[in-house]
């Protein structure tokens, strides 16, 4: 049990707060953009209208009794939250519920022509095929002749900052992509990261992925490097079982990213070949556990996932949402020890995250003071700061 007393769970009930703006502004914007991106029929438009009204002014409604995921959502708290405003239940819960309901509205789960059609795919593909992705891949050629440890550090950095590539964030804040970043990490345990993964390691790396495209590609490059250089013998990549938080990576996105690498020229293609053969011989496996899209903190992970992560040499936890799930989506005082709030995790874990929500732990007091003096509370949510924290 953590020695630290708990903190209040984040709700979205305070107008002017970041969680409130996500429910009141970001979700309607996402509905609008999805609606414009597809030639949906009248039934889908009506369902999107109903969702828009429900998510902004309505209450959480029960699922139809024949919904295939009824049992799962029942276990995840639906009976407790039914009848309550979306703004009055845990923010982590209402956001997940939004994506589940959005997919339902466009027919993603319903047998028929729209089943399995990812409503975010046009945005994801535009990013994957954009010039920035090609530039990032071309830059790998400059890295190719550097010593392995230098390459490793650059690729770790690339994976960390790749977390800025979050389409949900950019869809609602177009200026976010251009904001200047603060290169110094607000917490930096990268030495601990490398000491957990020394060369000639025999273990397995788990990576809990976040976004597709320009985040997943650097994640894959890091995995390829760790396999190629013998830091780990196997890797397991945890993806989402269905589209989620706009740009979260699914198996289809993994395939697209890997094909992008193998179809590239120069060093990028080499990484692609490493990963392609690693999947073929089982050195790299992918998972899409239902809990990856659960509205709950990782402290409530089911036994099978806990047992699997317990075997990992290290679990890399990518991104803001996974950080919220790792430490609990709570108003922690920023100096709350990261080791305490992650003590429940089944093994060593490394959080690689750019800061895009209020939650933060593990800062030293001077760092917090300096951030507040410079930016008020904006540093928490602007996506311009990053951290690498390791739970040993
Ligand atoms: O893609 P990431 O890094 O998990 O970020 C998810 C984003 O969505 C949010 O959950 C808000 O919707 C924030 O935590 C963050 O801005």
How would you characterize this protein structure?
Keywords: Hydrolase, Manganese, Metal-binding. It catalyses: beta-D-fructose 6-phosphate = dihydroxyacetone + D-glyceraldehyde 3-phosphate; beta-D-fructose 1-phosphate + H2O = D-fructose + phosphate. The protein is α/β, with parallel strands linked by helices and 392 residues long. The chain is built from 18 helices and seven strands. Bound molecules: 6-O-phosphono-beta-D-fructofuranose.
How would you summarize what this structure contains?
This protein is of the alpha/beta class and about 400 residues long.
DSSP summary: helix tally: 18
Q: How would you name the CATH homologous superfamily of the largest domain?
A: Uncharacterised protein PF01937, DUF89, domain 3
User: Could you state the order of secondary-structure elements as H and E?
Assistant: HHHHHHHHHHEHEHEHHEHEHHEHE
C-alpha geometry: globular
How many structural units, i.e. domains? 2
Approximately what portion of the residues adopt beta-strand conformation? 5-15%
Quick one: how many beta strands? Answer: 7
Distance between the termini: 16 Å
Major sheet attributes = 7 strands, mixed
Low-confidence blocks of residues: none
Per CATH, the class of the largest domain reads Alpha Beta
Do you know the CATH architecture of the largest domain? 3-Layer(aba) Sandwich
Keywords: Hydrolase, Manganese, Metal-binding
Pfam families: ARMT1-like_dom
Family: Belongs to the damage-control phosphatase family. Sugar phosphate phosphatase III subfamily.
Cofactor: Mn(2+)
């Amino acid at each position: 049990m953590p020695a630290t007393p708990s903190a209040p769970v984040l709700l979205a009930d305070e107008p002017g707060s970041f969680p409130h703006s996500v429910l009141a502004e970001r979700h309607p914007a996402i509905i609008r953009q999805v609606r414009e991106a597809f030639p949906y029929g009248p039934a889908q438009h009506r369902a999107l209208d109903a969702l828009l009204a429900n998510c902004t002014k309505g209450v959480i409604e029960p699922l139809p009794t024949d919904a295939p995921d009824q049992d799962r959502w029942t276990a995840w708290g639906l009976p407790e939250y039914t009848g309550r405003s979306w703004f009055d239940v845990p923010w982590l819960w209402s956001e997940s519920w939004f994506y589940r309901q959005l997919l339902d509205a466009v027919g993603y789960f319903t047998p028929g022509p729209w089943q399995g059609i990812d409503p975010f795919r046009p945005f994801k593909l535009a990013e994957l095929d954009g010039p920035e992705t090609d530039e990032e891949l071309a830059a790998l050629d400059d890295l190719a002749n550097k010593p392995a440890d230098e390459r490793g550090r650059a690729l770790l950095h690339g994976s960390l900052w790749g977390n800025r590539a979050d389409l949900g964030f950019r869809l609602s804040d177009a200026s976010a992509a251009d904001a200047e970043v603060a290169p110094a990490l607000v917490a930096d345990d990268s030495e601990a990261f490398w000491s957990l993964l020394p060369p000639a390691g025999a273990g397995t790396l788990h990576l809990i992925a976040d976004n597709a495209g320009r985040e997943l590609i650097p994640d894959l490059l890091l995995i390829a490097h760790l396999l190629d250089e013998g830091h780990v013998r196997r890797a397991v990549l945890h993806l989402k079982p269905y589209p989620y938080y706009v740009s979260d990576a699914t198996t289809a996105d993994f395939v697209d990213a890997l094909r992008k690498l193998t179809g590239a020229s120069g060093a990028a293609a080499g990484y692609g070949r490493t990963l392609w053969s690693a999947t073929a011989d089982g050195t790299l496996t992918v998972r899409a556990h239902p809990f990856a899209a659960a509205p709950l903190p990782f402290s409530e992970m089911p036994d099978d996932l806990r047992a699997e992560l317990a075997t990992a040499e290290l679990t890399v936890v990518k991104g803001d949402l996974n950080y919220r799930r790792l430490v609990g989506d709570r108003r922690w005082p920023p100096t709350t020890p990261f080791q305490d709030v992650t003590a429940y995790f089944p093994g060593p874990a490394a959080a690689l995250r750019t800061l895009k929500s209020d939650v933060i732990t593990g800062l030293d007091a001077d760092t917090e003071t300096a951030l507040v003096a410079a930016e008020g509370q904006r540093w928490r949510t602007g996506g311009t700061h990053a951290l690498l924290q390791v739970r040993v």
